[in-house]
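Late entry, evening session. Most of the bench is empty. Finally got around to the prediction I had been postponing all week. Sequence below, unchanged from the version circulated by S.P.
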Amino acid sequence: MTKSAQYWIDKLELQAHPEGGYYKETYRSKDRLHEFKLPDRYKSSRVFGTSIYFLLTAESNSNFHRLNSDEIWHFHTGGAAKIHFISPQGDLSTKTIGIDLEAGEQFQVVIPKHYWFAAEIISGDYILVGCTVAPGFEFEDFHLADRSELTSAYPDHKTLIERFTHV
């Protein structure tokens, strides 16, 4: 039996995420790194790592945002999603996460720290992934893009930025 996006939202107790989509934290390390042992971009201590379920639907894109840590997306079920990246230097690239390896999809995609990224469903009704962040995710490291600021910084990507930012 094929499961729907709503099935996973209900079964996994997912909630709306500020960037779009739905999520639930599933792991937060009990061990911490003190801020004086971390790079300067961290203003407070961090757990070693965190993990969440993250679900996108055809109606809920992941809008442009960036983190202070690398993030790894792990495919679980559903269709495929295209992840758009803008590097700090303004280079645009994409990767596709999904199950069709022959079509260039990948089971895991690494999003480097400080890259702006957004994602959209390109096949199926939804995609369910796991996201791992190390050092662990804290909302103070999460930066949701401001459309005018991102467009000003990367005018060559204006059309894409407009698709994946709020007004």
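Two things to note before I forget:
The first helix runs from residue 5 to 11.
The mean pLDDT is 96.
Will write this up properly tomorrow.
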